[in-house]
Amino acid sequence: MKRCRITEAFRKAKAESRGAFTAYLTMGCPTPEAGEKAVGDVIAAGADIVEIGVPFSDPFADGGVIRSASYEAIRHGMTLEKSLAAAKRLRERHPDTGFVLFSYYNPIFSFGTGRFADAAADAGIDAVLVVDLPLEERGELLQALSPKGIGYIPLIAPNTPLERVKEIGEGLENSFLYVMTVKGTTGERTSLPEDLAARLEEIRSVSHLPVAAGFGISTKAQAEEISRHADGYIVGSALVKKLMRGEKPCLS
Question: Is 152 exposed, middle or buried (0-12, 13-18, 19+ CB in 10 A)?
C-alpha cells in the first residue's frame, strides 16, 4: 500500500501545533548537482514537503526569480525525465518526506500521461501539481495518476468562489489546496493582503483537504502568521533566490 506522506506531513505538523512547511526548488538550478543537494538542505531546515520544480521554457505563472531558475536549469539540460530521475535518487535518501512534482502541463502531455504516471510512481512522487490545468481539464491526468496512488494538488486563486473551491477539492486524497495569497506571479512580497486571514478561514470551512498558502511568503514572520489561519505555508522564490546566490536555502 502506498504511503500517504502528504497527509502524514500535515497530521504531524498539526500534532506539533505548527504549520506544515512546503519548500519549492527548481531541479537543475543552479546546477543539477546543487539542485539535488538543496533538497537535502531544505529538509534539514525543516521542510515537511518538497515541491520538485520541473523547469519550463514559458513559466508564465512565475516571477523573475523562478523564471531565471528555469532558464538556467534548461541551459544545464534539465528536463522532465531528468527531474524524475533526480526525484528517484532523492526518494532513496529521504524516504519520509512528501514529494510533489511541480510542472506545467506541456512537458507532461508531450511525455505522455500514462508514461508520466508510471515514471512518477517509480520515482516515489506523492502528488503532482500542474500550474495550468484547470478543474475541467484535469480528468485525463487524474485517471492516469489515481491507480498509482499519486495525489493531485490544485491551485486556488484569490478570486475563486467558495463553491468552486469545494468542487475543486472533491475526490482528491493525499493532497492539499494550494491557495495563492495574491494575484499575479510567484515572487517575494514585503506584505500580504489584509483580508488573507479571513479568506483562508473561509476556504478551510468548505474543504476536507488541508489548506496551504503560497505566493509571496519570504520570512518566518509571514509563515507564522499564515499558519494561524491555514494548515501550512509554501515558500519558493525566497529559497531559490538564496540558492542562486550561493547561499543555503532557508527562511530568515
Answer: buried
Identify the active-site residue in 48, 62, 126, 225.
62
Q: What average pLDDT does the segment 129-142 reach? A: 96
The CATH number assigned to the domain with range 5-244 reads 3.20.20.70
- Residue 61, Cβ density class (10 Å: 0-12 exposed, 13-18 middle, ≥19 buried): middle
Q: Which of 8, 36, 48, 51 is catalytic?
A: 51
Q: Which three cell numbers stand for residue 161?
A: 468562489
Can you give the residue ranges of every domain in the chain? 5-244
- pLDDT confidence tier of residue 183, bands split at 50, 70 and 90: low
For this structure, is 51 an active site residue?
yes
The answer, yes or no, to whether residue 82 has pLDDT greater than 70, is: yes
Predicted pLDDT of residue 187: 47
Q: Is 62 marked active-site? A: yes
What confidence tens digit (pLDDT) does each residue in 42-59 have?
999 999 999 999 999 988
